[in-house]
Each structure stands twice: as structure tokens, then as C-alpha cells.
Specification:
The protein has 509 residues and is of the alpha/beta class. It has 15 helices and 14 strands. The strands form 2 sheets. Strands 1, 2, 3, 4, 5, 6, 7, 8, 9, 10 and 11 form an 11-stranded mixed beta sheet that branches. Strand 6, helix 8 and strand 7 form a beta-alpha-beta unit. Helix 2 packs antiparallel against helix 15. The longest helix is centred in the middle third of the chain and has 23 residues. It is elongated. The two termini are 50 Å apart. 46% of the residues are buried.
Length: 509
């Protein structure tokens, strides 16, 4: 074995200086990937020191500061590029709830981001929401100090207080009242009745004025929690922010509570929800870390993941699994001594969950660079290992060489190179890569697959209270970080940029 390495070293010394240096860097990356892979350490810090990183929160700002320090330590040129400002920020604390009375139960629930918490521990009886003026008049005296069960099954967003939502509720109440009158007056004539809408929160404003404690809606499990778009997008003044908790409760518990209330049983709920707003304006940023190309400094390989996450959990998968792998790939490349031919730009995007705001801002601010991006690698599909790549025809041989290195590093994982089939440029889609693809940038991604059968389900954690550190799979994350480092460096060192004409059928950038 010693003789083999001596011969290998001698062979490297006979190579031209640039090639020998690149080979040495690749060898160092592979050694680091085997012996000192820190991807799970990065993920631990993101999830368990900072927690859920909703845009506009202290957690996201602290995570960006920490990541900036790490990239600087590794020798990158680092910039925090402002994307925009929010009128209000948001921090989430803990939350607790239980039912008392004829039955006792610990409650399983979440609240959307950018919604109100309780005023300390608040206890109250339970009322089922009215859907018509007659029903409201019948229960209005019991609303003060009550938790209200509203209709419908939650889709993750808060019940809106936008002017459009208020007008919709007003019109629906008027229509319900008219339909109720019609049904009374024409009962039995034709056997048909006009529809009475049970849209959730129809009497939201009236119930708030009557003194309810908050609203509760059923949610499937796992519990999905998004945000209040009107607060995030609507420039709501600080003194006009939501004041009523917006609770999403495990639907089995919700149904049991509703049954008890319908039976006029003794039901009392208590909640302590620590949601807090931040006084704006709150700027939010992309982190951009660059290693300059030694041969083609004005050509680029971009590597991205979004650092923001929803915060009912800790963002361990969406997108902690992306950020941690991207950061570790960056560390491996930097500490290898690599001098890539093309400039490599690592970007931790912000506000992806609000509508790809960070990536859209970067592309808009760097329009001159966009046509010179060879590829944009984006990791935002969960903690899966990489198992293959579709290469453009003219570079398939080069990617076969990179694939051979990945297989050598991880021999128990498949990694095959397939023929790329050109396609139309994408529209804006579900991740940051689509923003680059929309502009005609190649966005060729490695295949991801649950190779060893860990039974991972992205749908289980997507935007739910299960998006935690323990849902990421350590060996998959380690493989992804090493494979990504080799793929990114190899793409930066290709003899030519990836040809756009071999990627898209509808023209160049």
C-alpha cells in the first residue's frame, strides 16, 4: 500500500503544476469527507442553538451572523446583501395547552407565524362559531372569555384580517342571512334549500369585539404551520397587529372537544402561547460567500440553499439539511487548498418560504453575472443522498470522471451519469433554483434517492411541527456534503461552461 501511494505521489509530481494542485485538492476533499465530516455539527447549531428561522426573527439573523463567521474563517469573501425590509418581525417562544372539566387532555397544537400569543395563561369555556346573524345573536352573550371553535380544516395560513377578507366575510354574512330567510319562508315547497356557507371565521370581527380569547381550527397531523401573509406583506402598523391567538389543533382532539360542547358538557381550555412581534423596519439578507476563480474569474458556479425556515419546529430538514450540506461542501473545498478555474459562489438565501424573495433579489441585483453562470446547484429536497446526474452530451465524459470520484468516496452508494434530455426553461416553482432556471441559467441537480431505505417522507415534515434535527439522516447528509463538494469543484474546473443550448430547448440566456 505504501508503494502505491509513493507511485501515485510521483505521478502527481510529473503532472503540470495546475493539474497536480487540483488533484491534491480533490484528494484532500475526499480525506476530509471520510475523516472530518462536520455536516451534522452545522445542522445541530442551526436547529438546536438557533431553532426555527422564520424571516424577520432573531433566530434567522443570529444564524446568518454565525454562518458568515464560519465562511470567513474558511477564507471566503463574505457579504450580507440586503433583500428588503419587513414592517414587523416575529419571534416565537414556547406554547402549552390543556383541556379541563368533564375530561382532561393535554392539547397538541400550533399557531402560524406572525400571529398573536396569549396574554399569559388564559382559561375559558368553549363556543362553536356562528355562521349567520341569527346564530350570532343567539350566542353573543356567551362569547366574552370564550375560546371559539371555527369551521373548516386548516391549510397552514392564518385567518386573514385583510380588507379583502373582511369584505368577503361581510358579503357572506349578508348572503347567509338572506338564504336562511328564504329557507324558512319556503320550507317544504320544493324540498331544496339554499346553501349556508360555513366559511371559517365569518363573524371574526364581531366575536373579537364581544371579547373572545381566540379561535381554534382543526388540523391534520402532523400539524402544518405557515404564517399570516397580510402581516408579512401588508405593512400593518405595529398598533394594528393581530391580538387574538389563531390556534390549529390536532383534529382528533378538536372533534372530541366539539362533541363535548355540542352535548353541553363542562369544557374548559387553557393556553399559554408566547408569540412576540418585533418593532420594524426589519431588514433581511442573503449571505453570499465567494471563492474567486483562478482562470475564469468572471464565470460562475452558484451553490444555494435557503436559511429561513418555518418555526413551529426547528427547520432541520427544510432547509437545514440543505444549508448544512452546502456549508460543509464549502468548508471541504476551502480547506482543500483548491484553486477553482471558475468563481464559486455559495448563497444562503432568505425569505424563500415567503415566495423566493431572496433568490429573486439576488438575480435582479446581479443581472450582469447571470449569463455567465455555468450551473446553479440548489439543495432543498430533504436529507437524501446523491445517486446520479444527467449530463449534457458534450460534457458527459467529464462528469463520468467526477462520478468515479464520488463512487470511490462512497462505494456503497450508486452514482451513475445519464444523458441529459433538454427541456423548456422552468417558470417560478417551489425552490430557489427555479428563479435561476427562469432566467435561462442551467440548474442541473444531482439525483436524490432514499438508497438504503430509511423510509423518509418529505411530506411528513414539510412545513410541519416535525421538521426537526432528528428527521435528517446523518449518513445521507455526510454523503451529500462530500458528493456536493466534488461535483461543485469539478463543475468549476470543466474545460468549458455548461452549454445552455444542451439544457433548454427554448434558447440561450
Amino acid at each position: 500500500m505504501k508503494r502505491f501511494y509513493t507511485l501515485a505521489l510521483a505521478a502527481m509530481l510529473l503532472l503540470p503544476t495546475g493539474i497536480a494542485a487540483q488533484n491534491a485538492a480533490v484528494k484532500k476533499i475526499m480525506q476530509t469527507a471520510r475523516e472530518d465530516n462536520r455536516v451534522m455539527q452545522h445542522l445541530d447549531i442551526l436547529c438546536n442553538r438557533f431553532g426555527g428561522r422564520i424571516t424577520g426573527s432573531d433566530a434567522q439573523e443570529n444564524a446568518l451572523k454565525w454562518a458568515s463567521q464560519r465562511f470567513e474563517e474558511w477564507g471566503y469573501e463574505v457579504q450580507l446583501e440586503e433583500v428588503g425590509t419587513l414592517a414587523t418581525g416575529f419571534n416565537r417562544g414556547g406554547w402549552w395547552g390543556r383541556m379541563t372539566g368533564d375530561e382532561q387532555m393535554t392539547l397538541n397544537f400550533v399557531t402560524p407565524s406572525y400571529t398573536a400569543g396569549t396574554k399569559g395563561l388564559q382559561r375559558g369555556h368553549v363556543v362553536i362559531e356562528p355562521t349567520s346573524q341569527a346564530e350570532f345573536d343567539r350566542v353573543k352573550g356567551s362569547l366574552r372569555g370564550a375560546w371559539v371553535l371555527v369551521n373548516g380544516r386548516w391549510n397552514g395560513y392564518a385567518i386573514s384580517n385583510s380588507p379583502e377578507a373582511k369584505e368577503y366575510r361581510r358579503k357572506t354574512i349578508v348572503q347567509n342571512t338572506e338564504n336562511e330567510r328564504y329557507n324558512r319562508e319556503h320550507a317544504g315547497e320544493d324540498g331544496e334549500k339554499r346553501h349556508i356557507s360555513d366559511s371559517p371565521g365569518l363573524f371574526y370581527d364581531e366575536m373579537a369585539k364581544a371579547g373572545i380569547l381566540g379561535i381554534i381550527q382543526a388540523s391534520g397531523v402532523p400539524l402544518q404551520a405557515l404564517y399570516d401573509p397580510y402581516v408579512v406583506n401588508g405593512k400593518v402598523p405595529f398598533d394594528s397587529l393581530p391580538t387574538l391567538p389563531d390556534i390549529r389543533l390536532d383534529e382528533e382532539q378538536y372533534n372530541r372537544i366539539r362533541t363535548l360542547v355540542e352535548q353541553r358538557r363542562n369544557v374548559c381550555l387553557e393556553f399559554d402561547i408566547r408569540n412576540h412581534f418585533r418593532l420594524g423596519p426589519i431588514p433581511y439578507h442573503n449571505l453570499v460567500a465567494t471563492i474567486k476563480g483562478s482562470k475564469y474569474p468572471d464565470e460562475y458556479v452558484v451553490v444555494g440553499a435557503h436559511i429561513d425556515s418555518f418555526d413551529s419546529a426547528t427547520g432541520g430538514v427544510d432547509c437545514g439539511s440543505g444549508v448544512s450540506a452546502v456549508m460543509e461542501a464549502a468548508r471541504m473545498i476551502a480547506t482543500s487548498g483548491a484553486k477553482p478555474d471558475r468563481t464559486i459562489i455559495f448563497i444562503l438565501f432568505t425569505a424563500e418560504e415567503f415566495g423566493l424573495w431572496g433568490s429573486k433579489a439576488w438575480v435582479e441585483a446581479h443581472r450582469d453575472m447571470v449569463p455567465r453562470i455555468s450551473n446553479m446547484f440548489n439543495r432543498d429536497g430533504g436529507p437524501m443522498p446523491y445517486a446520479g446526474f444527467a449530463a449534457p452530451p458534450s460534457l458527459k465524459g467529464e462528469y463520468e470522471k467526477i462520478a468515479a470520484l464520488i463512487r470511490e468516496l462512497y462505494p456503497d452508494y450508486p452514482f451513475e451519469v445519464r444523458d441529459l434530455q433538454p427541456r423548456s426553461k422552468p417558470g417560478y416553482g417551489g425552490n430557489d433554483a427555479s428563479v435561476f432556471g427562469h432566467e435561462g441559467v442551467p440548474i442541473l441537480q444531482m439525483d436524490e434517492r432514499d438508497v438504503k431505505g430509511y423510509n423518509f417522507s418529505y411530506g411528513e415534515i414539510w412545513h410541519t411541527d416535525r421538521d426537526r434535527y432528528d428527521k435528517s439522516i446523518p449518513e445521507y447528509q455526510q454523503q451529500a456534503a462530500g458528493a456536493l463538494a466534488l461535483m461543485v469543484l469539478g463543475t468549476a474546473n470543466l474545460p468549458k461552461r455548461i452549454p445552455v443550448g444542451e439544457v433548454y430547448t427554448d434558447g440561450a440566456q
